[in-house]
Amino acid sequence: MGFPRGPVEECNGKLNAVGDALYVIGGKWKLRIIIALSEGHRRFNEIQRAIKGISAKMLSNELKDLEINGFVKRTVHTGTPVVVEYEPTDYTHTLGDVLSSLADWGTMHREKLRREG
Predict the structure, then answer these.
(1) Measured between alpha carbons, how far apart are the two ends of the chain, in Å?
(2) Which residues, in sequence order, are CB contacts of 94 under 8 Å at separation 6+?
(3) What is the mean pLDDT of residues 37-49?
(4) How far is CA 93 from the centre of its chain?
(5) Rounded CA gap, 79 and 3, in Å?
(6) Domain residue ranges in the chain
(7) What backbone phi and psi angles, to 5 degrees, belong to 40?
(8) Backbone angles phi, psi at 53, to 5 degrees
(9) What is the arithmetic mean of pLDDT over 94-104?
(10) Are 33 and 51 in contact (CB under 8 A)?
């Protein structure tokens, strides 16, 4: 039987949980890549065109990280030419509420800035 958690332990638990989440999906590009893949499989160049400003090297690194963490599946179709496709995994769909909340908050924030500016 555990002891009741106090405010400090609860805060530390939330900080650790958010830290874990940001470690996996944080940064400028990862969620954008996941959104770009939300309609299904895409080739590397299609993803790069969909995300303005990302370099090929950065996209490659971020796709590897997303694959390691179970968000992206990479499929190589051998042939001439070799085609590499990326698609979201079922695990990616666990981010649905997070992405919806971020999109809602981003829209609200943009409107706030327009009203104030």
Answers:
(1) 54
(2) none
(3) 94
(4) 11
(5) 61
(6) 7-116
(7) 125, -160
(8) 95, -5
(9) 94
(10) yes
Q: Do the Cβ atoms of 62 and 49 come closer than 8 Å?
A: no
Per-residue pLDDT averaged across 58-68, rounded?
97
Please tell me the predicted confidence (pLDDT) of residue 3.
55
Please give the average per-residue pLDDT across 38-53, as a whole number: 94
- The CATH number of domain 7-116 is 1.10.10.10: yes
* Residue 86: both structure tokens together: 């990326």
CA distances from 111 to 8, 28, 102 (A): 35, 21, 14
Residue in the structure block whose two tokens are 């106090």: 6
Quote the CA–CA distance of 55 and 53 in Å, as a whole number.
6
Question: CB within 8 A of 66, min separation 6: which ones?
Answer: 30, 33, 34, 72
Q: Which two tokens stand for residue 88?
A: 């979201």
Q: Can you read off the two tokens belonging to residue 100? A: 């919806």
Distance in angstroms (rounded) separating the CA atoms of residues 4 and 36: 43
pTM: 0.84
Q: Decide if pLDDT at 34 tops 70.
A: yes
